[in-house]
Amino acid sequence: MKKILFIATGGTISCGQTELGLSPALGAGELLGLIPQIGEFCEISSVQPFSLDSTNMSPKEWITLAELIRDNYERFDGFVIAHGTDTMAYGAAALSCLIQGSPKPVIFTGSQLSPDVPNSDVKRNLRDAFLCAASDGAHGVAVAFAGRIIDGRCACKLHTREPDAFRSINRDDIGAISEDGKIFFKTEVPDREPVFFNSLDNRVAIIRLTPGAPCGIFDIDGASAVIIESYGAGGLPEIYESKLAELIAKGIYVIMSTQVLYGGSNLALYRVGRVVKERFELTETGAMTAEYAVMKAMWALAYSKNYEEFKRLYAEYIKE
Q1: What is the tens place of the pLDDT at every residue in 199-252?
Q2: Is the Cβ–Cβ distance between 111 and 85 less than 8 Å?
Q3: DSSP secondary structure, 276-317, as one string
Q4: Which of 55, 110, 111 lies closest to 80 in space, CA to CA?
Q5: Number of other CB atoms surrounding residue 27 within 10 Å
Q6: Are 82 and 8 in contact (CB under 8 A)?
């Protein structure tokens, strides 16, 4: 029987109603009590390092989760993290950077409805996450939600209310779980040791372009890297080129991205992109989600000493 470590962090999946609205209330043991049937296929230990609305989650907490998994990696066959949905895609992206190439599964899940609501998705998603973590075909960081299994680097929340809230961006789901608990995966378990990291440098800012926005949107303090979300395949309006030069002169790393969910960036496609890429030797996000692009920048910043090292690390995309 597989041994699974359950890590509860708060979120809607643990929320109860208060005078000021929903707030985390249930602990790890109480959540496990909602799905007693999982004891039939896995042996569970639990821990609760904190209990937060996911709006309050940050790189600090995700580093704590990665260290918790690293310190218990040899004792367990898989890990389930109950997390709030609002920043779960960021959390999964962060742990995808901090725990790379893992042959054991690290499964995020959560819920759109709190446990006390009729027809809540808490029990289904929790059950699915444990089924996934206890499966022989599971590996790496992933999100199990509404029957989907999504690579942690590709997950994105697309709906604030519907149960089927998450999608895999620019990559197919890596597996699925039916309502009756049948599970399958499209990927193979890697034959290698995981690589753990323990740092994220949060000095990363995002600038989202809007038509006619003043040049002052580029006046940013405290950032070491800036992701510019442009239009379509990518490019930069000419009026901003001098501000881009100022950022680079300050030693700030600039990454070009796109506001479009699917397809990814390609600065070489249009003149407005190729000119700035060649002039400033810019890097770009390609097909990364916005969540993974930010977390990958934080990780690359933490483990690079110069721009060339940063670009090399940022371009790495470990295939699992």
Answers
A1: 999 999 999 999 999 999 999 999 999 999 999 999 999 999 999 999 999 999
A2: yes
A3: HHHHHT-EE-TT--HHHHHHHHHHHHHT-SSHHHHHHHHH--
A4: 110
A5: 15
A6: yes
Q: Which residues pair with 156 in a beta bridge?
A: 167
Question: Cα-flanking dihedrals φ and ψ of residue 208, to 5°?
Answer: -100, 115
The strand pairing partners of 51, in sequence order, are none
Question: Is 201 within 8 Å of 298 (Cβ atoms)?
Answer: yes
Question: Torsion angle, CA of 157/48/78/74, rounded to 10 degrees?
Answer: 140
Q: Read off the pTM.
A: 0.95
Residue 298 tokens read as 């934080």
Residue 213 tokens read as 């926005």
Could you give the CA distance from residue 62 to residue 20 in angstroms, rounded to a whole number? 27
Residue-wise pLDDT for 135-163, tens only, equals: 998 999 999 999 999 999 999 999 999 99
Separation CA 89–CA 110 (nearest Å): 11
Q: What is the DSSP letter of 88?
A: H
| Helices 59-72, 88-98: inter-axial angle, 10-degree rounding | 50
Q: Residue 210: count other Cβ atoms within 10 Å of its Cβ.
A: 9
Between CA 3 and CA 75 the distance in angstroms is 8
Active-site annotation holds for 12: yes
Catalytic residue among 12, 85, 87, 285: 12
Spatial contact of 217 and 211, defined as CB atoms under 8 Å apart: no
- As a residue count, the chain comes to 320
